[in-house]
Structures are given as structure tokens and as C-alpha cells.
Amino acid sequence: MAVEIERAVPADAGEILTVQRAAYVTEAQLYGDPFLPPLVESMEQVRATIGGAVVLKATDAGRIVGSVRGRLSGTTCLVGRLVVAPDRQGRGLGSALLAALHEQVPQATAFDLFTGHLSEGNLRLYRRLGYRETGRERMDDHLTLVHLRRPGAPTTG
User: In 3D, which of 114, 94, 105, 113 has the Cα closest to residue 153?
Assistant: First the structure.
């Protein structure tokens, strides 16, 4: 895989949003909800997030093919919007992005994220990477969020 993972810059917001929307179409179909937050987020919101959080992008030959976000809340890194372009899914890119985020936020004592209860592929990925379910939150009739946590790297010294 000739993919490079690095910090996103504000100029990447449009391309990250395009990948995000493409990646979340299947989630919208799965839950029967075309208004999932990642699908209605604006480019300005993505740009602001890039300025205030750790946003990583995966590029291949200049094309952004994936992204993930992390923001510290106390000592916990809140992980969000792990997205991989549909034509690149299933090739380890999501795992690589999460591993890179874990390295980029070494001070985090834990990493928290959530996904929908029907998103079996996501749940398998997160569990394989050491995330464990911490609870469920029913949002409405068609969506229950599954919250997961992974311990951070132990600190030495």
C-alpha cells in the first residue's frame, strides 16, 4: 500500500468532505436516514475541525482516500469520522488510520468512539483493534449507538 498518512490542513476540507459523504452513503442506506451528521456537515465545519483537532488524511498519488479525527477531552481522545473511500475499503486503510491516530495522541489514556448497532463491519474493525463496548445509547427507533473504548499506551517514567 503506497498510502501516506499525515495531518490534514484546512485546504483538504473539501476533499475530506467528499470522501466522508461517499463513505457514509452505505450507513445512510443501512439506517434509512439520509441526514446522518457526517452527510450534512458543511465544508466550513470540516475546516474548523481541522484547525482544532487532530485530523489525519490518507493520500494515494495525491488523492485523499481516507480520514480520521481525534480530539482530546481531558485525557481521553474522542475518535470520530473514520472514513475510507468506497473503492478502497477492506484493504486495511481504516486500521492504518486508527493506528496512526493512536500514535499521534500518545498522551491519551483512552480512545473512545461510537458506531451504529447495525454497522457490523465497523464493530468488527474496532474490536480487532482492541476497542471494547462500554455501553449502548438508543437514539430513536432505527438507531442505537454502540460506544467503545480502547486503552491508550501506558506511560513510562
Answer: 105
